[in-house]
Amino acid sequence: MAATTPLAFRPSPAQRAIALLLCAGSWLVGVQGLARLLQNMPHLTEAIRAANITGDPTLALWTALIAGLVAVVTGGFLLLLAVLGLMLIEGTQVLVDDLGIAVELTILPGWLARRLGAGRLTWKQVTQVDKGRFFFQIHGEAPQEAPAPAFRPVLRFLVVDELERLMFLVLERSPNLKL
């Protein structure tokens, strides 16, 4: 059986540009917030010292200081998620050929790409198609040679151009698909 040239589905330039703008905007706002916190940190610590010396209550000042630090840590985590989202959108390729479907996350290291949903399924292995909270998911059945606690392989991707065409191809070519 000869396999033809695979169809490649990637995010459109508009989707990639929106992801880039969201990531860049998040970084600009995050860096500006961090700079303002670092700029005001000496004033807050000096106000806490002055309040301790005069015997004034310091609860509000400590609350402001801790809330600022929590906001910076939370913002840093969200910035990392923005970069990961950009990398997922920029590096995603979904390849469809006569033998099956493959999701490649080319920018990420192999172990992280597999953990986030890269892989390959034959058409006979595809059992379910879902739209999760963030990802489109294509579930497969475990191969026969899998270890005793069989894992269910899942392919995941955020978004691709011509998503309807891709879903129609999956629905058309998967004989074991359960709706």
Fold and architecture overview:
There is one protein chain. With 179 residues, the chain is of the alpha+beta class. 51% of the residues lie in helices and 18% in strands. The protein has helices spanning 13-54, 59-90, 110-116, 163-173, and strands at residues 7-9, 92-96, 100-105, 119-122, 126-131, 136-140, 154-157. A 4-stranded antiparallel sheet has the order 1-2-3-4. A 3-stranded antiparallel sheet has the order 5-6-7, with no helix packed on it. A hairpin with a 3-residue loop joins strand 2 (92-96) and strand 3. Helix 1 (13-54) runs antiparallel to helix 2. The longest helix has 42 residues, at 13-54. The protein is elongated. The two termini are 29 Å apart.
Keywords, please?
single chain; alpha+beta; four-stranded antiparallel β-sheet; three-stranded antiparallel β-sheet; elongated; 179 residues; 4 helices
